[in-house]
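sry for the spam today, last one i promise. struct tokens for design, 251 residues
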């Protein structure tokens, strides 16, 4: 009996008998539940127990315009889309690149920025794809950077870390020779580390978008409308300039 109960609970957790909240249900509750990682500065990070960053400010501004309060949830990057499909929150904003593989599992909004994966290294380290040959390269697990470095011929070793900030620490400590991450994340790190890190080449480009549970078209429509309002009324430009000193929208 006990075993049967446990099995049922496990199955419910895995398949999620509940449905994603519709736009109407979210609106009626007055609060939208948004998930991010909180360890990808300056896009999403923690300041004490508070989430902050470009994506957090943008999502908060969008929610405000939609007349909603926000409840933030933080999850390891690798769990974010799984939790979305298990209905633990309404949408995810955590710098997910739009890939065909992810698009099979979730629905993506219009992109909220355009970027690419770039190399960061210590002065004198490898700055081009060709120079990664035989080198130890670090990337965050579950990312498009991992997929991309796997395609670079002749890499010595690929080391994966739970958080992108762990990869930077590994690079600083000399445990890897190169770190592949978002070009804006890399730029920030290079600035903050004053002379200890340099940015190398862009390895690939990607569009970054928010994710809703597959089929949640009502919510997706509202998010896209809120994003396009933020893009046209100056909200997006203001937030982007605060974090990057430039407008990082897709052009
Ligand atoms: N843009 C990359 C990807 O799509 C990395 C995203 C990492 N995000 C994060 N919150 N750590 O995989």
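last one done:
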């Amino acid at each position: 009996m006990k075993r049967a109960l446990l099995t049922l609970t496990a199955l419910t957790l895995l398949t999620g008998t509940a449905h994603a909240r519709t736009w109407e249900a979210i609106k009626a509750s007055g609060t939208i539940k948004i998930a991010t990682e909180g360890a990808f500065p300056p896009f999403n990070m923690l300041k004490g127990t508070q989430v902050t960053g470009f994506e957090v400010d943008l999502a908060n501004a969008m929610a405000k315009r939609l007349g909603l309060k926000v409840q933030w949830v933080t999850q390891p990057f690798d769990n974010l889309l799984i939790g979305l499909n298990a209905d633990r929150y309404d949408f995810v904003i955590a710098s997910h690149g739009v890939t065909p593989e992810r698009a099979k599992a979730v629905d993506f909004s219009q992109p909220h920025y355009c970027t690419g994966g770039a190399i960061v290294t210590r002065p004198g380290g490898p700055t081009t794809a060709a120079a990664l040959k035989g080198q130890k390269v670090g990337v965050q697990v579950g990312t498009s950077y991992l997929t991309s470095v796997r395609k670079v011929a002749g890499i010595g070793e690929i080391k994966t870390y739970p958080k992108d900030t762990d990869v930077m620490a590994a690079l600083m400590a000399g445990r890897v020779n190169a770190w592949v991450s978002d070009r804006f994340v890399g730029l920030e790190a290079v600035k903050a580390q004053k002379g200890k890190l340099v940015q190398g080449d862009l390895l690939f480009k990607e569009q970054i978008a928010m994710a809703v549970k597959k089929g949640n078209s009502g919510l997706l429509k509202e998010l896209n409308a809120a994003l396009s309002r933020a893009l046209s009324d100056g909200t997006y430009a203001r937030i982007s300039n605060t974090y990057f000193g430039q407008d990082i929208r897709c052009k």
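The first strand starts at residue 31 and ends at 36. ok im logging off now
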